[in-house]
Design goal:
Radius of gyration: 17 Å
CATH topology: Methylamine Dehydrogenase, Chain H
Strand content: over 45%
Mean pLDDT: 91
Helix content: under 10%
Strand order of the largest sheet: 1-2-3-4
Structural class: mainly beta
Shape: globular
Number of domains: 1
CATH superfamily: YVTN repeat-like/Quinoprotein amine dehydrogenase
CATH architecture: 7 Propeller
Order of helices and strands: HEEEEEEEEEEEEEEEEEEEEEEEE
Largest sheet: 4 strands, antiparallel
């Protein structure tokens, strides 16, 4: 019981600290050809044009939702945005159209809020900080039960998760121990592939699924991994100069988008320059 409570407290404390006192961005996401989405502390979502950063629309707050993460995906030639969070003691993921219209809601087991989407198999992968279990939910079957994929026994508080659709793996960060795990979603087997990551709060992956970005909440660093000979290897760590981080997502033209709970930025991977933008 002590381990379970500790896992929940760590995960929720990370989100709370990252959000700060203002209604700043706690999550963000973008993919090629889509909009830039920023999830704010109050649960609303700002939809921006990727180049000009002009606000196109706002998805209003869902009543009673304590927001956690956001992800955008293209499914059957249509763009969607997904927002996860907590309603009371229950986890859920809400699906919206690219323009912000409600589309579907999926209950998640054991307060799972970290998630990613497999657009080809139309599966929602979620990770529970309570039990350290990764689950899969069928997006085409409303109300379908979550299927257990893997139990990461050594973890203390699994947090961010991202799907590598080329290798059919999910990458899962342990926010408490600073470890990154790789999970085979077909067999359920897993292995640690990186340590000393601080407190990983968010993961991003490049469009070719060969570069992985890990945001360290406590140190304000971005760890960069490159896929070499079938395995991710750390090639660089960028000191952003920010006191903390709440999110990272891949961006266009050798950039990434980052947030620190108060502001949103675009970071050049070449010059390491941060450019703040309004949301």
């Amino acid at each position: 019981m002590k381990r379970i409570v500790r896992g929940v407290v760590i995960a929720l404390a990370a989100l709370s600290l990252a959000a700060g006192a203002t209604n700043g961005p706690i999550g963000l996401d973008w993919h090629q050809g889509g909009y830039l989405y920023l999830l704010l502390k109050n649960g609303s979502v700002s939809i921006l044009e990727e180049t000009t950063k002009q606000r196109l629309a706002t998805i209003p707050t869902t009543f009673g939702l304590e927001p956690a993460e956001i992800f955008s995906a293209r499914l059957k030639e249509r763009d969607y945005v997904f927002v996860s969070g907590f309603v009371g003691r229950n986890g859920a993921v809400y699906q919206y159209t690219a323009e912000g219209k409600p589309y579907a809601k999926f209950a998640t087991p054991e307060q799972a809020a970290s998630f990613d989407v497999d657009p080809e198999r139309r599966l929602l992968y979620v990770a529970s900080p309570v039990t350290n279990v990764v689950y899969a939910i069928n997006l085409d079957q409303k109300g379908s039960a979550a299927k257990r994929v893997a139990y990461i026994r050594e973890a203390e508080a699994v947090g961010p998760i991202i799907f590598d659709r080329v290798r059919n793996r999910v990458m899962v960060g342990d926010a408490a121990r600073g470890v990154l795990y790789e999970v085979d979603v077909t067999t359920g087997s897993y292995r640690p592939i990186a340590t000393d990551l601080g407190s990983p709060i968010s993961l991003g992956i490049g469009p070719q699924f060969k570069t992985l970005y890990i945001a360290d909440r406590l140190a304000g660093r971005i760890h960069i991994f490159r896929l070499e000979n079938g395995a991710y290897k750390r090639i660089d760590t960028i000191e952003t100069g920010l006191r903390s981080l709440s999110a990272v997502a891949t961006g266009p033209s050798e950039t990434v988008f980052v947030a620190d709970g108060s502001n949103a930025y675009q970071l050049s991977l070449k010059t390491r320059k941060l450019t703040r933008f309004a949301y």
